[in-house]
Amino acid sequence: MRNMIIYLVLTGSLGTLELLSLLRSKLKKEAATVAALLACGMLLGILVYMEVPVPSPFELLKLVYRPVSDWFFKSAQ
Description:
- The termini are far apart.
- The radius of gyration is 13 Å and the shape is flat.
- The chain has one domain (about 1-75).
- The longest helix is centred in the middle third of the chain and has 22 residues, at about 30-50.
- The model has no long low-confidence stretch (mean pLDDT about 70).
- α1 packs antiparallel against α2 and α2 (about 30-50) packs antiparallel against α3.
- It is mainly alpha-helical.
- It is about 80% helix and about 0% strand.
């Protein structure tokens, strides 16, 4: 289980880097949204790996998605 979480975090990191390069293309807003979701998924994976008690992954995603997506949208402009 832990190996799968590490794998997901690493592939999410690479996917986020790839999407950040897409931010310079015409699909800035869409790429920023996907990059924000990948970053939130990586954060969830890290918290699960560290065995941090999380009330619900969806609650945490709702708390984290807005600031992360705002940051990616600002970097896209």
